[in-house]
Every structure is written in C-alpha cells, then in structure tokens.
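> Could you send the ScbR family autoregulator-binding transcription factor prediction when you get a chance?

Sure thing. Input:
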Amino acid sequence: MAQQLRAIRTRGAILNAAAEVFAQHGYHGASIAQILEKAQVTRGALYFHFASKEQLVQGIFAEQVTEQGYPPRTYKLQELVDEAMALACRLPQEIMLRAGAKLAMEPQLQELTDGGPWEAWALRFASMVLAAKEHGEVYPHVAPEELGRFLVSSWVGAQIVSEVTSGWQDLEERISSIFAYTLPSVAMPAIFAQLDFGPDRGTRVLAEMRAEDAAALVAEPAS
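Output:
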C-alpha cells in the first residue's frame, strides 16, 4: 500500500512539473530535462509512468475533464452553467488547466490526443444538454451535440481573448456574457428565469464545494 501511494505521488509530481514546463515553454520548447529538474525525480521514475513527452501531454489532457463533484441542481442547465463558470474561475488558478489550454492550441497535437480536451468538453456539455432536453428544460429544436460544440468554441474563444487582454482577469465575465446571450434561445422561458449565470457564479459554486468538503471532514468519526 505504501509503495502504491508513493507511486501515485510520484506520478502526480511528474505531471504537475510537466504542466508547469509546458505552460511556460509550450510543447516544442519543453524538454524532459526541464521536467525532471522541476519534478525532482529520476529519468527512470519519469519513464516508468510516462514513456514520452506525448504521453505527458495525454496525461495533462486527461486531467482537463474530470468529475469534480459539482453539487446537483434542480435544473440540468444550471449544472452545465455551474461547470462552465467554475472552470472559468479555476483556470487562472490551476496550472494543469493552464497547461492544457496552451497545449490544446498546438495543431500538431490534435491527432495525438484525438481532438484534445475541447472535444471531451464538447461531449460532456452535449450529454448535459441532452439530459436537460429529456427534462423539458430546452426547446425541442435544440440539438445537444451542436450546442455542446458551440458552447466549447465560444468558451475557448473567450478564454484566448481574455488571456491576451487581461491575463484571464475578465474570463468569468466573458463566459457569463456567453450564457446571457445564448440561453434565451435555448432554455424554456420559465427555466431561463431561474438560471444563475452571474459573473461570480463559478466562485460561489467552488466556495460551496469547499464548505461541503469541510463539513464532511468534521462529520467523519474519529478513528
């Protein structure tokens, strides 16, 4: 068990180091030597977990779309909004997300990673729109896959502009605006009136999750 935990920690250290190096230098500017120095592991340890730079990229992309345990909501559309807004809040703070965003812009990596994280996010959003449609939250004409791709394309465009113009300081506001102009043509009026997509929505969702985690720790019986 101790050996397994050590291997998990080593893998995490390598992946985080790779994310820092890729975020700073890009794929072609990054070297295995830089990653080894940042991670403070041996070359053998790195290659035990990742056989190449390509596998490191795949590992980083795999971390982009993960189950974060977002709170369930009355409306599936609100769950979609919460994930998108929380992602906008997290990206400037989390090196793994920043590295993924940078690497995803390198066209030569698309074949390697089967479309990168954007395709995975499009599929996730599409599944959430489909669930919303099954619950009668959206208009009958809404096509989940098309809307999923549209939302991701809009999110990525906003992310790029926000990084260049403000270092992501206005990213949450930009994503909020996307929903403000998109949701009225998607959501049934009675549902739209109850959706919360304010610029600080992601911040509030993440604070709620941290509070729930803290409460769960307090409630755990002492061993």
